[in-house]
Design the sequence.
């Protein structure tokens, strides 16, 4: 891996998301959740989302939560997701946007966990 980056461009966001998803897909604890995912089609959507969150671009107009309601998520999946998210940020990026990405991911995971797992019997 080259020197850590600032997450200042869409190309950096894509490289970072590729690293993150490589980690997720290689982890037997969560890989099954992505079995039907067309990653090549999904990567531009992920870049749009993180470009909105980190670069302030007006690039994402989807309901993130609704896209995840069909998944058979368990509490432990959020811990694994955050483990890989933080590790991919720490490996790939540095600076304020990297820290903002981790903070945002933890906030999203907390909300999703409460709504998706906490709401189930």
Sequence:
């Amino acid at each position: 891996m080259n020197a850590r980056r600032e997450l200042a461009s869409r190309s950096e966001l894509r490289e970072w998301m590729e690293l993150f998803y490589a980690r997720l897909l290689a982890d037997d604890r969560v890989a099954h959740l992505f079995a039907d995912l067309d990653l090549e089609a999904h990567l531009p959507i992920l870049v749009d989302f993180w470009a909105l969150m980190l670069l302030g671009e007006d690039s994402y107009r989807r309901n993130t939560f609704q896209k995840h309601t069909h998944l058979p998520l368990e509490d432990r999946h959020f811990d694994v997701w955050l483990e890989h998210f933080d590790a991919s940020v720490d490996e790939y990026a540095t600076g304020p946007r990297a820290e903002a990405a981790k903070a945002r991911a933890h906030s999203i995971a907390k909300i999703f966990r409460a709504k998706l797992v906490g709401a189930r019997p």
Q: What stands out?
A: The chain has a mean pLDDT of 92. Residues 96-117 form the longest helix (22 residues).
